[in-house]
Amino acid sequence: MKFIDGIAILGALAWAPHLITLIKNHFTKPKVRIITSRSAELGFTSMGPILNLHLAFSVEYKDIVVSDLKIRLKHESGEERVFEWQGIKQNVGKMTTPDAGSMPFEKEQSVLAIKLNQTQIEERFIRFQDVAFIASKKEYENTAVKKIAYLKAENKYNAEDFLREQEMTELYNFNKHSFPWKEGEYTASIEVQSPEKFILADNIRNFSLSPVDIEELSKNRDVLEADYKRLLVGQKEGDPDIVWQWRSPALVKT
Q: How far apart are the first and last CA of the chain?
């Protein structure tokens, strides 16, 4: 063996530990598998289009922190919307009361981040909302809030009268015309983000909405003004309760 060949072999051996680490990291990269309930929960309220899911995560190789969670929803027509997590409920046990007996005890979690671990598969109820709707609605709400502040400063504010102001009319109309649901097939892609690199599996679901589903959900548009009245004026004795229509289409894994 020549001297130069020996140097080359030593150089290769020096790189071996680094190469082994790279290969090991590749094959032990965290794998997150999405588990969902058999149906989703769809709605349309004064908070806009809503998509709720019962989700669980199966994690392999090592724990992982989820920093963001979205659903990219595509209708068969090609129209696409993005729903972002806005709230999480998690079952943490059961509570026993003399009157109701054993009841599940839930806690509300922040959507800042959640830690997924290998040892437990925990179910979470996650509320998703249309991010484009939230951004646009904020502009109408800010305009209304400024008008309220001005009227209060002039000592002219009356909640009942304000419901008929132009700012509220524009807010009603924006909300009503933001109804998104259509008859047909939807594809929901669940997108998970983390500071770490990982593999995502089983994150696609399909569901379909029928004409009856659309008809029922559309009824919520007629409830919007009553809900805003409840928020601004309060619910008086004898006022009917606000009842929203929800649909629960079956989810199909692809």
A: 58
- Could you tell me the pTM of the whole model? 0.82
- What's residue 239's pLDDT? 80
Amino acid 132: pLDDT: 95
Q: What secondary structure does DSSP assign to 98-131, as a single string?
A: TTTEEEEEEEEE-SS-EEE-SS----EEEEEEEH
> Are 67 and 33 contacting, i.e. CB atoms less than 8 angstroms apart?
no
Percentage of residues in the chain with pLDDT exceeding 70?
Answer: 81
**Which residue in 79, 86, 126, 121 sits closest to 106, CA to CA?**
126
Contacts of 62 (CB under 8 A, 6+ apart): 28, 30, 118
Strands 64-66 and 199-201, by their bridges, are unpaired
214/49 Cα distance (integer angstroms): 13
Q: Which residues contact 94 (CB under 8 A, 6 or more apart)?
A: 102, 103, 104, 105
Q: Are 5 and 178 in contact (CB under 8 A)?
A: no
SS3 readout for 141-161: HHHHHHHHHHHHHCCCCCHHH
Q: How confident is the model at residue 234 (pLDDT cuts 50, 70, 90)?
A: confident
Domain ranges of the chain: 29-130+180-253
Task: For residue range 24-61, list pLDDT tens digits in order.
Answer: 555 578 999 999 999 999 999 999 999 999 999 999 98
Tokens 């046990």, residue? 93
